[in-house]
TrEMBL record:
Keywords: Ligase, Phenylpropanoid metabolism. Residues 450-527 form the AMP-binding enzyme C-terminal domain. GO terms for biological process: phenylpropanoid metabolic process. InterPro entries: AMP-bd_C, AMP-bd_C_sf, AMP-binding_CS, AMP-dep_synth/lig_dom, ANL_N_sf. One of its GO terms (molecular function) is (E)-caffeate-CoA ligase activity. It comes from the Eukaryota. Residues 21-400 form the AMP-dependent synthetase/ligase domain. This is 4-coumarate--CoA ligase. Belongs to the ATP-dependent AMP-binding enzyme family. Pathway: Phytoalexin biosynthesis; 3,4',5-trihydroxystilbene biosynthesis; 3,4',5-trihydroxystilbene from trans-4-coumarate: step 1/2.
């Protein structure tokens, strides 16, 4: 069969943009987007996306140009996930809570040609543009207003507003297909848990694969009702932006939310699915919420969820699934795939199992935990630490304009995640820490995640983060930063928290310092900024706890 080779009929480039074209046929009259009183069908959404793509082409946007978006979870943000690539351009969704300096760096580094700006981010984006050097070309701006607001074309610095872009577009526009499936589709900058974000480039093929993978692994049915509590700018909503088109889902958009808004949306729209970092689970379980009338599937990822938080969330009627991925994988590539026999276990044991990250998705070729010195797989004993490495079609093309960073992360046939984990005897992965968050105390490697998991079990603790504090004798000791739940009558002291931990973990793991904060510093995607807390712990000086 040597003469059989790829040919045009069997090698059309894979792209997730094709999902909306199919949705416009299969789910034409089904609801695609709900945003307050605004409702669109899939045929309408496809038409709107083609019109926007047409106007972008008339603006001179061509294949490979970067077009940025600074917007919350509103219909325009969803539509632009399709419309920008349909013009042949690369989608760059920017974290809307970044400061002007960082947005300016992102726009310059990406060489963005056009920026869609939500009206609430108008001033900060204009400030970011003002920071451009005189010789640097400025991107054009399109304002995304709320209904009834001043049109963007009449505002200084803006070439049009979103409605004008729609009005100008050709509904029959023949959208631009990728020349190869390895053409770039998205450019996402890594989350602000560190001070140096990098531009991650994903292809049409990789995004297609991670989207299908995520739907299969979560067993998402046709026509789900999906509530957007996860920011779409966070790794493109873990690929569920495109995934909802693939299954004809209803996208319930929220500009902003709190626990009350989430529960109201669940009741009003009969939500079936939603995603969120563990901080969202914590938000849903604080106070005394009533149990759900019907179960809601919720996918959590972004940080290892404490078992205590999982237990509380499921007691309310949420069915929690747990996945793992990075900006560099474009979505979730490891799922804690549930085994039926685990349903027979006690609730506490089930929560501990669900806190594990799990096994590779079907499109991932391989995952492993390897020893940094030998490069060999660690023992599958659930105890031996190593770095988590991945290999598969969902892995990024690389970092934009950063050959050195790309080579460092992608070597020896693996993508090195920087996460520290263990492999259990049954082949399930469990993340223990980021490599930079491991605390080395008296020569022992200490997982901050394990300490945090115990702290979350304290009835008064709302959030917890553990980092290293310098110590003259031990080198480093655990320092816990915690916030307390609202309405706590008897607030625990530092000694109380330390004693609670001593009863539940080995002595060397017990926090030697406990700092109470009103709120822990977080990124807009809900990740606790440990680099901020590390600096705070460092500023405290040596704990000097040689007698403990």
């Amino acid at each position: 069969m040597d003469q059989l080779k790829p040919s045009p009929p069997n090698s059309r480039p894979l792209t997730p943009i094709s999902f909306i074209e199919r949705a416009a046929t299969v789910y034409a009259d089904c609801t695609s987007i709900v945003y307050g009183s605004t409702i669109y069908t899939w045929s309408q959404t496809y038409l709107r996306c083609r019109k926007i793509a047409s106007t972008l082409s008339s603006f001179g946007i061509t294949r490979g140009d970067v077009v940025s978006v600074v917007a919350p979870n509103i219909p325009a943000m969803y539509e632009l996930h399709f419309a920008i690539p349909m013009a042949g351009a690369v989608l760059n969704s920017i974290n809307l809570r970044l400061n002007a300096q960082t947005i300016s760096v992102v726009l310059r580094h990406s060489e963005s040609k056009l920026v869609f700006v939500d009206y609430q981010s108008e001033s900060i984006v204009l400030e970011a543009i003002s920071l451009f050097p005189p010789t640097c070309p400025l991107p054009r701006l399109v304002l995304v207003p709320e209904e009834g607001q001043v049109r963007g074309a009449s505002k200084p610095g803006f070439v049009a507003d979103y409605d004008a872009v729609l009005e100008r577009g050709d509904p029959n526009f023949d959208w631009v297909k990728p020349e190869t499936e390895f053409d770039p589709l998205t450019l996402n900058y890594t989350s602000g848990t560190t001070s140096a974000p990098k531009g991650v480039v994903h292809s049409h093929r990789g995004t297609f694969l991670v989207t299908i993978d995520s739907l299969i692994s979560w067993s998402v049915p046709k026509e789900p009702v999906y509530l957007w509590t996860l920011p779409m700018f966070h790794a493109n909503g873990w690929s569920y932006t495109w995934g909802m088109a693939a299954v004809g889902g209803t996208n319930v958009c929220l500009r902003k939310f709190d626990a009350a808004a989430i529960y109201a949306a669940i009741r009003t729209y009969h939500v079936t699915h939603m995603c969120g970092a563990p901080v969202v689970l914590n938000l849903l379980t604080n106070g005394n919420p009533k149990p759900l009338e019907k179960p809601v599937e919720i996918m959590t990822a972004g940080a290892p969820p404490p078992a205590a938080v999982l237990l509380r969330t499921e007691s309310l009627g949420f069915v929690v699934s747990h996945g793992y991925g990075l900006t560099e994988t474009g979505g979730l590539v490891v799922f804690c795939t549930w085994k039926n026999k685990w349903n027979m276990f006690p609730a506490v044991e089930r929560a501990k199992l669900k806190a594990r990250q799990g096994v590779r998705t079907p499109a991932m070729a391989e995952i492993d935990v390897i020893d940094a010195e030998t490069g060999k797989s660690v023992e599958r004993d659930g105890k031996t630490l190593g770095e988590v490495v991945l290999c598969g079609g969902c892995v990024m093309l690389g970092y934009l304009k950063d050959a050195e960073g790309t080579a460092k992360a992608m070597k020896d046939g693996w993508f090195f995640t920087g996460d520290v984990g263990v492999m259990h005897p049954d082949g399930y992965l469990e993340i223990k820490d980021r490599s930079k968050d491991v605390i080395i105390s008296g020569g022992e490697n200490l997982s901050s995640v394990e300490v945090e998991s115990v702290l979350y079990g304290h009835p008064a603790v709302n959030e917890a983060a553990v980092v290293a504090r310098p110590d003259e004798f031990w080198g480093e000791t655990p320092c816990a930063f915690v916030s307390l739940k609202e309405g706590v009558k008897e607030k625990p002291t530092e000694k109380d928290v330390i004693e609670y931990c001593r009863e539940r973990m080995p002595r060397f793991m017990v926090p030697k310092t406990v700092v109470f904060e009103a709120e822990l510093p977080k990124t807009s995607t809900g990740k606790i900024q440990k680099f901020v807390l590390r600096e705070a712990a460092k500023a405290m000086g040596s704990a000097n706890l040689s007698k403990l």
